[in-house]
Specification:
- The protein is mainly alpha-helical.
- 95% of the residues lie in helices and 0% in strands.
- The longest helix is centred in the middle third of the chain and has 111 residues, at 10-120.
- The relative contact order is 0.03.
Amino acid sequence: MDIGDIAGNPIAQLVFLILSAAGGYKVWRAQQPAEAKERADSEGQIAALGTWKELLEGERAARVKAEERADKFAAERNEAMQQVWEMRGQLTAMNEALTAQTSELASLRDQVRQLKEQIHAPQ
């Protein structure tokens, strides 16, 4: 079949048009899966990035909460230590006062004993 035969024959033109369309469709279908794979891969990567971003944000939020709890714990610990040192100072002062009162009580007992001896002493 010569190209000149197609130009004058409408049926040959129709067949040529159908075959050209079929060939174009075949080429288009051959490229379609590759494009779909690339598009699916890109969409998958975008979805994975979104998931990773959400995980990262969750991890950051958890870390911030953990740091807040650690700061609160440290503040409470420091306050408790301050109270312990204050109580230790109070106990030291109380021990000193008790020692002083014990010695004063011993002194008073000695005086009472001496006074009792003077009262009961033969005259």
